[in-house]
TrEMBL record:
Superkingdom of the organism of origin: Bacteria
Organism: Prauserella cavernicola
InterPro entries for the chain: C45_proenzyme-like, Peptidase_C45, Peptidase_C45_hydrolase
Pfam families associated with the record: AAT (PF03417)
Protein name: Peptidase C45 hydrolase domain-containing protein
Domain Peptidase C45 hydrolase span(s) in chain numbering: 125-342
């Protein structure tokens, strides 16, 4: 079994409807999964629908292409628009709705990410990668998108969300992987560009500076870590809080990150809510540094490490698991994805220009 791969159209509404039709069952599955997740958190489904629709005019104002794609997904999947908007802003919704109740999010995306400069890669090309940890059962897809009004891109995302809105690379060799972060001020800037749209902004960049500004250029509704790379052998990590940000650079060609602020001095409950974050980044760093240069086999072994490849705890409601591992070669414009946890699944590689 492999993650579905779609070649999608330039027109955003058609692109969305193509996904909606092709992945209808997976989209229905993800909608049901998230409705259960919100219910398990004690959140009202009617309020959820209202809050999702409140995002729609902001998405239309912020990016007409992205909002048209989201609306196309709903049409193609024959689902209410509010449900598909929910999928695309579910992180912002969870954080915001819990914050209004004075609660912290105990279970959101985990993820352990890394970047390698070219001299640490056996191919001599810079590489990004990560384990993506989330609710067991969430279904994803890979999309290859050709555009006339912006760079072509290739990436990975959840079914029902805009193409390549989690991890990806564009035709200019600019790529990104992400990690959830948590700050006390999350949700104090409502209806800012959601993190998925910022990933798309990065993949729409033609320069590394534009990619960085996609994160740093405005306040954020939720905190997020963006590990961004360029094919000309540059990697920068941006820890983005609600209205401040800090950058980290590779040390001897390697950079890793988990789910707490390593550079930005900010009030956060991450260590209390996500205790594994304290060791995942440093552990991945040590595993990577065992090798002077790393090939695909080495990277696979590192991501499959039992302290990095998570299994859901059946006795802990809302616990997350490693669902996919992702490797991105910025020079080759390739995205490799496992269809399950990397300790039991192999990578399938996809090229922007096959």
């Amino acid at each position: 079994m492999s993650v579905p791969v779609l070649d999608l159209a330039n027109d955003p509404a058609l692109r969305g409807s193509q996904q909606g039709e092709a992945l209808r069952a997976d989209i229905e599955h993800n909608i049901a999964l998230y409705l259960d997740v919100f219910a398990s958190l004690g959140l009202d489904i009617e309020e959820l629908t209202e809050q999702a629709l409140c995002w729609l005019p902001h998405l239309r104002r912020q990016d007409a292409e992205f909002s048209a794609e989201v609306e196309g997904i709903a049409e193609g999947a024959a689902r209410p628009l509010a449900e598909v908007v929910m999928l695309n802003v579910r992180y912002e919704l969870i954080i915001g709705m819990l914050a209004r109740r004075g609660r912290a999010p105990a279970g959101v995306d985990g993820c352990t990410s890394f970047g390698l400069l070219a001299h640490r890669s056996d191919t001599g090309t810079p590489v990004l990668g990560q384990n993506w940890d989330w609710m067991p059962g969430a279904r994803t897809y890979v999309a290859r998108v050709r555009r006339t009004g912006g760079p072509d891109f290739l990436g990975h995302a959840e079914a029902g969300t805009g193409a390549a809105t989690q991890q990806g690379v564009n035709e200019h060799g600019i790529g990104v992987v992400i990690n959830a972060l948590m700050a006390a001020g999350d949700s104090r800037h409502p209806y800012q560009r959601p993190f998925r749209l910022r990933v798309r902004d990065i993949l729409s960049a033609t320069t590394l500076g534009q990619a960085i500004k996609a994160v740093s250029g405005s306040n954020r509704t939720v905190s997020m870590n963006f590990l961004i790379g360029h094919r000309l052998d540059e990697i920068v990590d941006i820890e983005a809080g609600p209205d401040t940000a800090a950058c980290l650079l590779p040390a001897d060609g390697i950079l890793t990150h988990a789910n707490h602020f390593a550079r930005l001095d900010i009030d956060s409950n991450a260590l209390r809510e996500w205790p594994s974050t304290v060791y995942r980044g440093p552990r991945l760093d040590r595993l990577l540094r065992r090798h002077a240069t790393l090939d695909r086999k080495h990277l696979h072994e590192c991501l499959a490490d039992p302290l990095l490849c998570a299994r859901a705890d059946p006795d802990t409601p809302g616990s997350t698991a490693t669902l996919n591992a992702i490797l991105i070669d910025l020079e080759r414009r390739s995205v490799a994805v496992t269809a399950g946890p990397p300790d039991t699944h192999e990578f399938d590689e996809h090229l922007l220009d096959p």
